[in-house]
Amino acid sequence: xxxxxxxxxxxxxxxxxxxxxxxxxxxxxxxxxxxxxxxxxxxxxxxxxxxxxxxxxxxxxxxxxxxxxxxxxxxxxxxxxxxxxxxxxxxxxxxxxxxxxxxxxxxxxxxxxxxxxxxxxxxxxxxxxxxxxxxxxxxxxxxxxxxxxxxxxxxxxxxxxxxxxxxxxxxxxxxxxxxxxxxxxxxxxxxxxxxxxxxxxxxxxxxxxxxxxxxxxxxxx
Length: 221
Known about the structure:
The chain is mainly beta. It is 12% helix and 40% strand. Strand 3 (62-65) and strand 4 form a beta hairpin. Helix 1 packs antiparallel against helix 3 (111-122).
């Protein structure tokens, strides 16, 4: 189990331990009923929903995303909670690197599938591509509502600056005062042979939109 390193700040160890592709798809299909979405989940099409388990913990295991195989290549289970700023605590669940299988082809004229295919084409997503998935919890103990809780920059140990276009994400774009929330995001990764990443945040208060001073976070695989 890896340790979370926070540059220039203390880590409180636990005792035992610009654009969003997926949201664009969901925004364009809000009016669709769950039955209509379910009807698109046929073999050979790109779909958002899948009955396959989404949690894999062992390298080599495969899950389903966009109706294609995503094979786990690396995983970091982080042990610790870091204080990004006074009253703002970050706890990672894990970081994972996946490799994608074959890109499914479109069948028929389904609008949802076509939208996803357009995004794949737009970002040059192809068979064999690698992706970085991050999952974490932010606890806002301040007296201010905050916005932009996702990383603003991610750098790898090989020097790559990760494209911050979220291929898939889950979580709100705001974080209420005296509240906590879970966040996750999937980013395209050029070089999977990395030892770790550095995450930078550009979180702002929701009244004056002033940036909250935070420190970068290092996470190793």
